[in-house]
Write a structure and sequence with these properties.
Helix 1 packs across helix 7, helix 1 runs antiparallel to helix 10 and helix 10 runs antiparallel to helix 12. The chain has 12 helices and no strands. It is 74% helix and 0% strand.
Length: 351
């Protein structure tokens, strides 16, 4: 169901509402990819617990800040929902990793285990003499057909061989990119549809209240609450600090294995559209027909000042999430090689 073009309000307020609705849609589903990734792997080693704990504290401060600032009840309900989602993801991590507050570079330990198993399979000094003897005996029983230059001695390529799996890897990467883009587009469409439905019913039941309603709505947006601002900046600091443990864990592990990239993609889109929805604000002067000199700029400046803590928190986390994307692409080749080594060791099995 696509909203009719003639019903779309493309005014500044309409654009702000559309962007805000897209941001809400992204934040509603943001944790789903990571929860599914942890369930699929049966592990939550890729996530930093300090990252989740700081994020939970930031969402809790956001709830208190929203209450003091006097935002819409819908925003308070969403802030509570984000907090509950944090608790669910954190509980899943405790389920897989045990109750601990520390982050360990588990990826490097897994790599060491893989290397140890591989070296055990490849180097066995205590069996060298018996291996040489058995190889000599088995060479006496080689099928004579292999001695013919017509019959190749090499076995048929296996699926794990690089030439046989190269096309599959490139296809899987293209498929993953397509699915990620499709997921973001679907969520954005759902956000636009949600805004269109809410706006349609709001206009139907509320009607038009004239300039008085517009003025009262703007005054509520410009209201300044000291405690709301304090918790808003606490929330911003916690959001900014939450990404640092995850960046450090990825750096120590030299890997991003176990992290759902769609998790951070939704977070980036949600933060970007949230900031843009705040910036899309049209000041209403005291006299609706005309503004005094500098009046509109003063109203817009006060509006930005009231929302500055949330703007800084969203923009800051957006930049840090981009740093995590850099780690995704930097460690991607290494993650693939570790997966291949693990697959080879598993195929070899116990001897």
């Amino acid at each position: 169901m696509i909203p009719p073009v003639q019903d779309l309000d493309l005014s500044v307020e309409g654009i702000s509402g559309i962007l805000g609705s897209i941001s809400i849609a992204c934040w509603i589903v943001v944790f789903s990819p990571q929860v599914l990734e942890n369930w699929r792997r049966g592990s939550a080693d890729g996530l930093s617990l300090l990252f989740l704990i700081a994020w939970l504290a930031g969402d809790f401060a956001n709830v208190i800040g929203c209450v003091f600032q006097g935002v819409l009840p819908t925003m308070i309900i969403l802030a509570v929902y984000y907090t509950i989602a944090d608790v669910i993801l954190l509980g899943q991590c405790f389920y897989y990793r045990g109750f601990t507050w520390s982050d360990k570079a588990l990826g490097s330990e897994n790599q060491a285990d893989v290397e140890t198993e591989a070296s055990t399979l490849l180097h066995r000094p205590e069996h060298d003499r018996r291996l040489s003897r058995s190889s000599f005996i088995s060479s006496q029983n080689v099928d004579g057909t292999h001695l013919s230059p017509v019959t190749p001695l090499l076995d048929d390529p296996k699926p794990l061989d690089i030439p046989a799996s190269g096309n599959f890897k490139s296809t899987s990467v293209i498929k993953a990119i397509f699915l990620n883009i499709l997921s973001i587009v679907v969520v954005c469409i759902a956000g636009v549809l949600g805004w269109w439905l809410s706006n349609k019913f709001a206009n139907k039941y509320n009607g038009k209240d004239g300039g008085r309603h517009i003025q009262e709505d703007q005054e509520s947006k410009l209201a300044f609450s000291v405690w709301g601002q304090i918790f808003g900046y606490i929330c911003a600091i916690l959001y900014l600090g939450s990404r640092i443990p995850q960046l450090l864990l990825n750096y120590r592990r030299k890997s991003t294995e176990g992290i759902a990239i769609l998790f951070f993609l939704f977070a980036c889109v949600g933060n970007l559209t949230y900031v843009l929805s705040i910036a899309a604000f049209s000041p209403k002067c005291r006299h609706l027909r005309h503004c005094r000199e500098g009046e509109a700029a003063a109203i817009y400046g006060r509006y930005i000042l009231v929302n500055l803590s949330w703007i800084l928190g969203s923009l800051g986390t957006l930049l840090l999430d981009l740093a995590i994307f850099v780690q995704f692409f930097r460690y991607r080749g290494r993650d693939k090689s570790l997966e291949e080594e693990t697959a080879i060791v598993d195929d070899a099995g116990p001897t």
